[in-house]
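Hello,

I think I submitted the heme C job twice by accident. Can you confirm which output corresponds to this input? Input:
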Amino acid sequence: MVVLKTLVAFFVFWAVIFFGMLVDFGKWLARVILRSRLRITIAFLLVAAGTVVGIGNAISSSASQQLPPQPVVFQHTFHAGQLNLTCVFCHRTAPTQAVAGVPSLEQCMFCHRAIGRERPEVAKLVKAYQAEEPLNWLRINRLPDTAHFEHAAHIRVNISCSVCHGEVQQMEKVTPIRSLKMGDCLGCHRSRGAPTGCSTCHY
Ligand code: HEC
Ligand code: HEC
Ligand code: HEC
Ligand code: HEC
Ligand code: HEC
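Support: Only one job matched these inputs. Its output is below.
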């Protein structure tokens, strides 16, 4: 649609130029342009380049309107729900490090070397593994670089994943349940006597 609109705009533009040449200003413009072939070439190239850039922008802006899907449709409902795998089976570094860690393909292949290979989404996974290409999972929760979060500090005092992330094992698609913005962090820190100095989360 957007491309079509750009093309229509392009033709309308030329129609206007052509019409303009019929009036005096048009004649003058035509005389100036026609004085040298070089100018015509330059004018043409400028318009052509403008059109290409316009179409490029139109395509990229229509693409960015929808977020790309995850590279493989992964279900927490099945793995964490039905199979009842614990969260840290996959998000291994949550109890010990700042980041929870999204599992490597190697960890998925622990089971999928043998299980479910006939399923299309699992086949994608196996293919990426064999090609040694990591899956680029889209991040859902991400703080700005100026703020620092530490999973381990929270797991150590037995705050469960669901307090901040909700019942992920029941979510078809991981969706944030709370803002996890500064006010939200501070609200809990105050009520639990956790540190609130700026340097706790900013350095
Ligand atoms: C502990 C074993 C285990 C691990 C680890 C595991 N899975 Fe699975 N997964 C399964 C089982 C069992 C099935 C069901 C297969 C079937 O019914 O054919 C499954 C099914 C799937 C499916 C297909 C669902 C469908 O309905 O088409 C996908 C996709 C998938 N897993 C992705 C992953 C990814 C990605 C990882 C790594 C982050 C992973 N799995 C780790 C056991 C596991
Ligand atoms: C079999 C492996 C596996 C298990 C078990 C698992 N996860 Fe995940 N988790 C993943 C994968 C793969 C992703 C990235 C794809 C996605 O977002 O669905 C992910 C993404 C997430 C995210 C979003 C990360 C982000 O970008 O912000 C959260 C939060 C999360 N998991 C929490 C949990 C919780 C809580 C549990 C336990 C109830 C759990 N997970 C169990 C594999 C797993
Ligand atoms: C006190 C709140 C809180 C708790 C509890 C918590 N998380 Fe998070 N989680 C966050 C925040 C905030 C981010 C974003 C961090 C960032 O961008 O630096 C995040 C990011 C993530 C991510 C994606 C980035 C990463 O660190 O790998 C995963 C996966 C995740 N959490 C899983 C879990 C799991 C599994 C648990 C339980 C073991 C858990 N979280 C417990 C707040 C929490
Ligand atoms: C549900 C309550 C809760 C929420 C929400 C929460 N925290 Fe915490 N946080 C705590 C508690 C309790 C501690 C203290 C742990 C301890 O005593 O070792 C803590 C400790 C920390 C620490 C380590 C402090 C230190 O010096 O050891 C950091 C960093 C931190 N939180 C950052 C954050 C950020 C950033 C957010 C928001 C994205 C957040 N927290 C949200 C409860 C929470
Ligand atoms: C418990 C953790 C925590 C503490 C303590 C904390 N902040 Fe923040 N702060 C955050 C988080 C998380 C964000 C990013 C999310 C948002 O914009 O709210 C943030 C964002 C900000 C921003 C916005 C800049 C940006 O990166 O978008 C400013 C300014 C700021 N904090 C100042 C402060 C000051 C000053 C203090 C001390 C009085 C303080 N913060 C204490 C967690 C904290």
